[in-house]
Amino acid sequence: MVAARPKRVLMIAYHFPPLAGGSGILRTLGFVRHLPDCGWQPLVLSPGPGAYAQRCDSQLAQVGAQTTVRRSLALDAARHLAIGGRYPRCLALPDRWSSWWLSAVPAGLRMIRAYRPDAIWSTYPIATAHLIGMTLQKLSGLPWIADQRDPMLDDSDALAPYPPEPRLHRVHAWIEQRIAARSAAIVCTTPGAMEAHRRRLAQVARERFHLIENGYDEDGYRDGPARAGHRSRFLLLHSGVIYPSERDPQPLFQALARLRHDGVLHARNFQLVLRATGHDAWLASLLVKYAILDLVTLAPLQPHGAALHEMQAADGLLLLQAANCNGQIPAKLYEYLRCRRPILALTDLAGDSAAKLRHCGIDTIGQLASSADCARALLRFLELARQGRAPLASPAAIALQSRQARSNALADLLDQVSHRRTA
């Protein structure tokens, strides 16, 4: 009896080790690690290490032995092609790594000939990954899954479209239309994002859209809470990037300043740590502006495992998400849930982040846009957390958010589009 040929998927991703930082790495890495348990062997095509301005080798060890990884040349227009700090805008369409397409298409074709994958998967950001996936689909005829980790377009506000630059907006719109025409499936990470795609791409059959959320990976967590003894200062932690528009903390800072002025909060009973914000200089100026330097600490990027342990040791975890991102859920939310520490979410009550938390039984939520509501939500949260009464997600609800569960869903979709089922 001849053994069945193993099922393989060619995965095209910019965000992959040794790139340092970014939740997109964790999504692709999670699929790569868990798909073999679901009967699928990943074949990864990513840029060469020189494409990454910041590199860290610590996550390379998590790429399993069953995974074939090929890297091809990609130049960053801003670093490699600039003269005097300037470069032609056309070299950065649809993104600064557009040159990757030139090397990745031949490399991908060689992988297709050598390994005979059953499907192609590519993930955005960055858009060049989808251009590579689209080209390889056209040349090979293989079914292609377009993973929309973030939305490529947002026209919900006519005065503030995304991307804001008109030429880039047109290029993204063209790519999205090609995805609609050529992909076998379009994967979104939140219900809101999937509905937005369905509205924009009304010509696409509804069954071609699939929801596969982000999640957490069990590895890296301590078995129990790693809290450091009794603390006189309540430690509230935000771990990850704070974007000036999408996660603007100024209403919270205004609330902290007022509570500090009223004597409710002071340096002896409260500390907010902002870890790996990506915008420390801007935030430092705000801390001076609101005179809360004694309440808020900026902390640098650290390895992912150390970041998880810090989350598990915190008294509370802070989530920020503005109303202009109602159709998105920060990947950090899933890690927060797994940490089983009290969560304070300052977001928009109508958004997907708030809905996900409520679905998991967590109601310590405030409106980020309102300084008064930030203060109200923070005081209620501190009272509940100090009394040990802050709501936490149940173990059953947490298990549903794991990377293993998400990989099971992707494997089912791969079976569907490739018409191959496990016997």
The whole-number mean of residue pLDDT values reads 94
Total tally of structural domains: 2
Helix content: 25-40%
Structural class estimated from helices and strands: alpha/beta
CATH topology of the largest domain: Rossmann fold
* CATH architecture identity of the largest domain: 3-Layer(aba) Sandwich
Number of helices: 14
Order of helices and strands: EHEEHHEHEHEHEEHEHEHEHEHEHHH
Kindly report how far apart the N and C termini lie: 14 Å
The number of strands is 13
Q: What portion of the residues fall into strands of 2 or more residues? A: 15-25%
Radius of gyration: 22 Å
Polypeptide structure, described:
A seven-stranded parallel β-sheet has the order 3-2-1-4-5-6-7, sandwiched between helices. A six-stranded parallel β-sheet has the order 10-9-8-11-12-13, sandwiched between helices. The longest helix is centred in the middle third of the chain and has 17 residues, at 166-182. Helix 4 (127-140) packs parallel to helix 5 (166-182) and helix 7 (250-261) packs across helix 12 (371-386). Strand 4 (119-124), helix 4 and strand 5 form a beta-alpha-beta unit. It is globular. The mean pLDDT is 94. The chain is of the alpha/beta class. It has helices at residues 23-34, 77-80, 100-115, 127-140, 166-182, 191-200, 250-261, 280-289, 304-313, 332-339, 352-359, 371-386, 395-399, 403-418; strands spanning 7-12, 40-47, 68-72, 119-124, 144-148, 185-188, 209-211, 234-239, 270-275, 296-299, 316-320, 343-347, 365-367. It folds into two domains: 7-215 and 402-420, Glycogen Phosphorylase B (Rossmann fold), CATH 3.40.50; 234-400, Glycogen Phosphorylase B (Rossmann fold).
